[in-house]
Each structure stands twice: as C-alpha cells, then as structure tokens.
Known about the structure:
The complex is a heterodimer of chains A (350) and B (308). Chain A is mainly alpha-helical and 350 residues long. Chain A has helices spanning 2-8, 13-32, 41-51, 63-98, 110-123, 135-155, 163-187, 193-200, 208-226, 229-235, 239-244, 249-271, 277-289, 293-317, 326-344, and strands at 129-130, 133-134, 156-157, 160-161.
Amino acid sequence: xxxxxxxxxxxxxxxxxxxxxxxxxxxxxxxxxxxxxxxxxxxxxxxxxxxxxxxxxxxxxxxxxxxxxxxxxxxxxxxxxxxxxxxxxxxxxxxxxxxxxxxxxxxxxxxxxxxxxxxxxxxxxxxxxxxxxxxxxxxxxxxxxxxxxxxxxxxxxxxxxxxxxxxxxxxxxxxxxxxxxxxxxxxxxxxxxxxxxxxxxxxxxxxxxxxxxxxxxxxxxxxxxxxxxxxxxxxxxxxxxxxxxxxxxxxxxxxxxxxxxxxxxxxxxxxxxxxxxxxxxxxxxxxxxxxxxxxxxxxxxxxxxxxxxxxxxxxxxxxxxxxxxxxxxxxxxxxxxxxxxxxxxxxxxx
Amino acid sequence: xxxxxxxxxxxxxxxxxxxxxxxxxxxxxxxxxxxxxxxxxxxxxxxxxxxxxxxxxxxxxxxxxxxxxxxxxxxxxxxxxxxxxxxxxxxxxxxxxxxxxxxxxxxxxxxxxxxxxxxxxxxxxxxxxxxxxxxxxxxxxxxxxxxxxxxxxxxxxxxxxxxxxxxxxxxxxxxxxxxxxxxxxxxxxxxxxxxxxxxxxxxxxxxxxxxxxxxxxxxxxxxxxxxxxxxxxxxxxxxxxxxxxxxxxxxxxxxxxxxxxxxxxxxxxxxxxxxxxxxxxxxxxxxxxxxxxxxxxxxxxxxxxxxx
Lengths: 350, 308
C-alpha cells in the first residue's frame, strides 16, 4: 500500500513528513484508549480533560482508572514515541556516517557497554536508586559512552578517525562487554532480577519522571542531527571529496557520533535493550523514498516511533492480563515486513 | 542483541528454576539422636521423571545433587556427608559453602563430575540427562514437586533412598503437621486477602499451578493473577485495577521500588504499606524451609491472630 503510494502520488518531502507526523499523532491518541484494562473511550477523554485542568472529573470514574490512563498509559506511549524516534534516527546517522548498511545503535558497542554498566551496578552492592538518583540509568550511560570512547581512541590517528577501525573496535568492545556481563552474571549471587528486568528491554516501568529526565537531551540532540542531513549526503561521496567540498569531516563525525550515542544511551537507560528498530527503520525509508539524508533522518525517526508505538500496543494488550517483551514483538512484526520490502525492491542496491 | 536474548533466556529459566536466593539466619534442624530401626530393602525401585524404573542396588554414598531443595532435604536428614558436590547457586544451609561445585544448570562441568566418581547424580530438569547417561553415571531425574504434599512425599523418598527411613518419615510428618498447625490457626478466617506476588521489578509474578500459588491458597490468600498459568510478566494496569491488599516481594529492592512507583499509589497494599519482603527461597525451594515461609506470610497476612 505504502509502496504504491510512492508511485501514484508525487508529494513533496515536507508533505510526506507532515502526513506521517499526523499519523503518528493519531495513533498516539488512539493508543491511550487501548490497554490491558478496558476503560470506555469517553472516560479516557474525561480523565485527560480533568488532568489538563479544563474541567473537573466525573464522580463515576474510579481513581484507579485515572492512574491507569495518566500514570501508566500516557508516559508509556510517550516513551515508545521517544525511544522509537531516537533509536531509528541514531540508526540512520550511523548508517550514513559509516556508509555501512549494517550499522545500527548497537554496532559500535553502545548497547553492550550500557549492559555492562548496568550489570556492574546490579551485581555489586551499589543501590539501584540512591537518594532519588537513578544510578542504574547513569551507569548504563557511562558504560555505553565508555564503549564508544574506547573505540574512538583506538581508531584515532592524529586528528583523523578511521571509520572502518571504529566499527571493528566497536564490535570488539561490544563482544568484550557482553562476555564481561555474562562472566559477572554467572559468578554473582543469583539475585539477578533487577538485571533481568533491565536486560529484557521494555516500556512497562516508564513513569513521568523518567521521561522528564531524558526529554531535554533527546530534543537537543535529535535537533542537532536534523541539521546534518545535507552534510551526510555529501559524505556519501567519500571523505576526501567531502573535505574538498568544504565539509569539516572530523568535526562532523564527532558531533554525529556523540549525538547518536547520547540518543541511544539515554533511551536505553529508560527502556533497556530494544533492538531491530535502529537497523530496520532507516532501510525501509531508504527503500521507499531513496537515500536523501535530509528526508531520511526525520522520516526514519517518525517511522521508528510509529513502529515502536504499535509494537508496544501489541506487547501490552495481546496476552492480557500478561505482557510480552516488546523486543519480541518488534522482531516478530518487523522482520517479515522488512523482508517483504527487501523482496519488493530486490533489484535495488542498498 | 542475540547475545542478550540468550542471556535473557538464561535468566528467565534461571528465575523459574532457582527462584530468588539470599542468606538466611535460621538453622537446619538435624535430628542427631534419631536412630533408624527401619531400614530400606535394596535393591530399591523408584519411578523417575520419565516414568521409567530406576533401581538402586544399594544406598548411594557419593551423590552429586543438582537441586537446592534436595541439598536442604539431605542436610535436614543428617546425610550431608553423602553430598559429593552441588550446583553453583546453593547457599543453604550456611555450611554448604564448603561443598564442591560442579557448575550450574546451564553449564555443568562434566570433567569434574566424572573425576568425582559419584554413585548417583540427581537432577530435577532433564536437559543434561542424556549427556550424563552417556558418561556412564547413574543419573536420577525427577521433577520438582508443585504441591506441599508432594514436598512431604519427596522428603520421605530421600529418607528411603539414603536408608534413613525413620528420619525421612519423621521430617515428612513434621512438615505436614506444621502445615496443618498453620492451617488450623487461621481456620476462623473468612475474608480472603488479595495478594500480588512481586517476583521482579518488571512485573513478573506467579499464577496458578505454582508452588507459591498453592502456599497462598493454603493461607486463604487469593493471588490476584489466579487467571494466569505458571510464571508470567503482567500488565501494571492490571495490578492497579485488581488492587491487591497485600504485596509479597521476594527481592531486597522490592519494597522501595513499589513505594516509589507513581502508578501504584492508588493500590491498597501500597497506600497502607502492606508489603512483605521475604527471602524468595522460603517460598520457592521445595524443602522443609517452606514452613518458615508459610509462617512468615501467615504472620504478615493475619497479624491479629498471630499477636495473641
């Protein structure tokens, strides 16, 4: 359906983006109406209106419904949108920057590093929350950034960073971190439930505080990345050509790697490890609309957000009252769709 | 990601198989004076987890026990000298730290197992069965019991296997008697308190068909997720909606996690701070300590009865 859309209509890029932002908004609003506990749509609307201080709450609505809508569903939906957007944008940036179709937020070791950071907190006596500070999230961020920094320092010669070496170093650092995590796990006291929770990935524990904590950083770095679409396009011709066209290649690399890593680490620190979106969302956009990074970066983000929103809706409703891990749904829904897109475009070289 | 999904799988199975674990302060009761007048007749035939007959030619003396519950039972029966080795995560009773380890359920050290020359290896999951048979080691596989009567039966069975029938029967009867003592103490209770069993911070809980479920049931408590089979991750919305009166948390950070979760503040158990942090092993390891777990939960659910 979407593929035909490309052939039958000639819409400007801006129109397409606005259209899909509209779809994202529509889905987000609809998603508030669905959940494990059935709440009539009119009650949902009333709860939101009362929370926005527009009118007072109807007496007939139980307090637990207010909590469910306002403190569970809405933060979770916002988190799905933020996480899906950030992971997909990071994926698009890594793929463009490394000129490598396999690059994703996990490739340069961010995820494994973050996992190791969290594991160290959880197997030692360090408290998960300390005087209100989310130690676990901070440790994950330090671990993720540490892995990138490690790869960066190894691949830097003089003032140049070799991207090939950075990817290889990232794979090595990632494997090492994964092995360390496993080693710590099997030698730890078997009280590993918080770690289990974190590693499973998922949006079920998200609260307003989590979102408010990360959203400023997400907004800043997601915006910075938007300005680099044109530069990334030029970089596709190779670093030397880009240099001769006036692009400060090294500076661009540092800014983009830093931004994408912060986006990934912060999202991972609240949602755990959700795979697949960062790899696949940019490819879908590329296959449908071509590789122009000015369009690709925002559009991959919007697609990632819609995708994770839908996947999480499945995760939280399909097995009610039980839940299933969202990572399972992203792979289960996403992989066949991605294979279909690849099949439809099989004569096209990525 | 693959690495992590394997790790996750490992952890989930781990969670289900071993439950939670902590160091406890209670002592194992070894009935030293007990003399065994009744002895087991060997060869002894028992039915294993596959429904096949397993024959003991004589009572095993050198046992590798890959099961926390069986280790506790053997200590309880005063047969700890027969435990040759156990798995990595056994930590009760405290003296067990001196027992050699041969890996965990997912990575058994077969060389070490062979070198120890056991005359029995006991497992409660069938994964390594074929491998151990191939190594020519007598391997007994029986699934863990999922009822309290099953636990009593299992204690008796171990008494028979190690030729301490009296000790086995005494311990088994003690277990059942303590159980009925608790049940009679709460016999007048007519309300059925609702309970959420907090297994992990991402809302894993127990449903029907689990040992924990049966323990709650015996205590006249209603597990709010009795419509779920086995262990599962549940929706927070459902916890809020089902509004449990009590929460049983089996990991140390549970209480703080629950009290700081905004979404739960309308839940009765959280508002009234009716949260019990209990060592997970006390309601997970299928041995004599389950009685301690039952008593702790009973005191928590019915403070008025137990205050007297």
